[in-house]
Amino acid sequence: MNKDLMVADFMKSFINNNTEAIIDKEYFELEKEYKSLFKHPVPKEMLPDSITDDVIKTAMKKCIETKKDLLFDLLGVKINKEFLY
Description:
single chain; mainly alpha; 4 helices; elongated
């Protein structure tokens, strides 16, 4: 089969795919509320991959309820300001 034809077929199936992206709406809403309250987004890039979205959501809820930005403490994350890994 012609390589160009294979790419064209793939692109057609990709564009015509009617499935919606799976978005965690609860996470999105919590993050929006967190950002509004604390004036910064959840720094997910600073969190280890081992922390699941469900654990992050639980910590965000506690921060929002108490109006205290203790996300890193609740997640058990320590930031070392002397070393960049």
